């Protein structure tokens, strides 16, 4: 049925991905996936137009219900569609704007509903609905990328956890678990200049400084998880986001650390990638 086909959208700090999702079984319609890089430092008109171009392509790829569910990073007023991202390294130009209104006016295709959902919550919803984390009652999920996304799942339902502003070592989690931290640490240790984590991992020879950065990240994450586990006795951890693609550089150390701290929970790296957020967003409306 067309009513089952919803457009799921994942908006990150440097990209947008959209696809039509059959919410009945959580599958993505073949040929409906579209992805483009986005200049998150551009003006509002440029950002909105390029987002909508990608969404429009997916909407026109197959019959659908005209419903859009967008996994959006915060701070964001998800109910009213207002962006409050500022000083986060992305989308400052949209601060205080009615993003829903701007999108609806830009989209040429008929849209019946347009929903915004927290991106980390959508990611975890996709994982606990259609991934190995579905076997656990209490799950925490984190997206590692431009920012630090977090969500908590209970009995198959995920919600935003807002751990990005959780106090940690004299700062907040966002200070230690975002791409800015990785780039800054690597540049400090080497005296080189890399601009993002992908460049750091792809273009730099793996050696002492790079491993030192990821070792430090593992210890910081382990300290945070130890704090969190004392408050929330979760059963499972799931990591997603672009930085999690480099899990071989931090996962062994992190597993060892939490084992030494007597946290007996499995850690999964998302095998679904961005499709987890797409599926989770679409299935939540």
UniProtKB/TrEMBL annotation:
InterPro entries: ATPase_NBD, ROK. It holds the Pfam family ROK. Gene3D superfamilies: 3.30.420.40. It comes from the Bacteria. PANTHER family: BIFUNCTIONAL UDP-N-ACETYLGLUCOSAMINE 2-EPIMERASE_N-ACETYLMANNOSAMINE KINASE, ROK (REPRESSOR, ORF, KINASE) FAMILY. Belongs to the ROK (NagC/XylR) family. This is ROK family protein. It comes from Pedobacter kyonggii. The lineage of its organism: Bacteria, Pseudomonadati, Bacteroidota, Sphingobacteriia, Sphingobacteriales.
């Amino acid at each position: 049925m067309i009513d089952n086909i919803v457009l799921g959208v994942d908006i990150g700090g440097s990209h947008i991905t959209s696809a039509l999702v059959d919410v009945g079984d959580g599958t993505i319609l073949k040929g409906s996936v579209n992805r483009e890089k986005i200049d998150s430092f551009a003006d509002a008109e440029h950002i909105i137009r390029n987002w909508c171009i990608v969404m429009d392509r997916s909407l026109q790829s197959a019959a659908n219900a005209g419903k859009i569910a967008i996994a959006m990073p915060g701070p964001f007023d998800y109910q009213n569609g207002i962006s409050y991202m500022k000083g986060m390294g992305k989308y400052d130009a949209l601060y205080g704007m009615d993003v829903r209104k701007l999108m609806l006016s830009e989209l040429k295709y008929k849209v019946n509903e347009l929903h915004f959902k927290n991106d980390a919550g959508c990611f975890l919803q996709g994982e606990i609905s259609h991934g190995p984390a579905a076997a656990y009652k209490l799950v925490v999920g984190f997206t590692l990328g431009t920012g630090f996304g977090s969500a908590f799942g209970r009995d198959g339902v995920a919600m935003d956890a807002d751990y990005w502003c959780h106090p940690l070592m004299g700062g907040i989690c966002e200070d230690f678990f975002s791409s800015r931290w990785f780039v800054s640490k690597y540049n400090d240790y080497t005296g080189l200049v890399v601009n993002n984590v992908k460049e750091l991992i792809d273009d730099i020879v793996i050696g002492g400084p790079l491993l030192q950065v990821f070792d430090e990240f593992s210890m910081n994450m382990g300290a945070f998880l130890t704090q969190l586990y004392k408050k929330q006795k979760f059963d499972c951890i799931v990591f997603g986001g672009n930085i999690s693609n480099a899990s071989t550089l931090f996962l062994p150390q992190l597993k060892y650390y939490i084992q030494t701290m007597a946290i007996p929970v499995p850690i999964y790296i998302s095998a679904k990638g961005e499709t987890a957020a797409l599926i989770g967003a679409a299935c939540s409306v």
